């Protein structure tokens, strides 16, 4: 299991250096690896991070429905992970998504 988590972490890191379109594919690959791993705080935190970054990228690519879907998944995983750093990112994105819906 640790190997899967390490591979996924590497992909999440690599996505930072990729173009938005490539990063989406890389992050989806990371999510696929994480889905195989047993639920844990670490796995849920990484799932949250991957989904929240996917939401940001999809919004950047003007794919609002996909962005909303990924955000909701990421927000849920952030809450279950109980990792403060990821929860702060989820709350920040929540405020951005709410203001975008209202504006």
Give the structure's gist in a few sentences:
With 103 residues, this protein is mostly helical.
Question: Which helices and strands appear, and what pairs or packs with what?
Answer:
Layout: H1 2-15, H2 20-36, H3 41-60, H4 64-81, H5 84-102
Helix pairs in contact: 1-2, 1-3, 2-3, 3-4, 3-5, 4-5
Beta-sheet strand percentage?
Answer: under 5%
User: How many helical elements?
Assistant: 5
Low-pLDDT residue spans: none
In round numbers, the mean pLDDT is 94
Oligomeric state of the chains in view: single chain
Residue share in helix: over 70%
**C-alpha termini separation:** 43 Å
Question: Tally of extended strands?
Answer: 0
Query: What structural category characterises the helix and strand content?
Result: mainly alpha
Sheet with the most strands? none
Coarse morphology: globular
Backbone CA Rg: 13 Å
H/E series: HHHHH
